[in-house]
Amino acid sequence: MGGVNNLPPTPAAASAAAGTQSYRSSGVGDRQQFDGPGPEAGRNSPQPAAQVEQLNGQVETLQNAVANQRMSQSRTSLDDNEYSTRFNRLNGAINNLAFNIRKDWRSLPPWIENYVSPDAIKTGKQEMTAVGRAVIIRWIVDEVFNKCFHPGLDFGLSGHLKAIEQNIRRFSYTLTSQEEFDALTAKVVNWRMATLEGLQHMLQSPESNDYRADFTKMVASNLTAALYQYLNDPPPPGVDGSASMIVELVVGIAANLPMESRDVVISYPLPGDPIQPDIMEPEKTGLPPLADSAEEGEDSGKDGDKASKRDKTKSAPPAKDPTKIRFAGFLAVEVRGRQVLVKAPVWTLG
User: Fold this and answer.
1) Is residue 207 in a domain?
2) Is the pLDDT of residue 284 over 80?
3) Is residue 3 in some structural domain?
4) Residue 331 contacts residue 139 (beta carbons within 8 Å)
């Protein structure tokens, strides 16, 4: 039976084998205790191909929907360069008219007269050109950009819609963060876009062109009349023609502004407002100094005219302050929350 060993194992060998088996068994338990529980069955199994395809299809559908929504909400009527070009043309046309009438002023609008030097009207030089620019552009901002929603609509309806647009922002709650400012801007833009969609039947009708022509004619006539009340009589020739050209440019801009899905803001800085370097550009060429209020009071006292003294005291020129505006020669244009397209040229009280 040669090499076959039929003898039972010795006690030592049996103990060694048992010890080895016991050691290996306890090792597995210890490893599980320290490594934590093993993975559950089925967790690493791949997802079915059909389910993966379905999920990919849903993701693609959502991505397309978001992209289409952004495209439908992002509308640019004119690009930044075109807006800059049009406002530069408007500024040039206003400068030409202001220069041509610089020697023809007989009085000034009350809002600016305290910010003009005593001899400005008499001399009719550079300061009166700047004053003419200020008077013309403020009238345009107040009477067109702040009152017209779209020139292709009935004048009354356009005015009401513009008031609603302004009131959405004016009567909003106090904003405390940039996110709230952005949310309000989006609210205004969304309202304007929805309103324009509802007005397409009017804006695309033949009557829309008639409304725009009538509005242009009315504004040109009103601007001419507004200037005539402060100019010599008879007024200088060419004022009405220059006013018509200016208004044509203004109406062309006003017809594009409401079509924008961004918030293009037009503002005119008023005398006494603080300088805002981000939307204003101080003019390097200075103007003649304003009259000193103390000297004016002394002169009035010498004359003994108490009523005149009271008037002069009431309308005393403002104190020197290089951080405040004397007046602005043009408007400021910015895309709210993004960039400034036009900085308003201003003269300071310094």
Assistant:
1) yes
2) yes
3) no
4) no
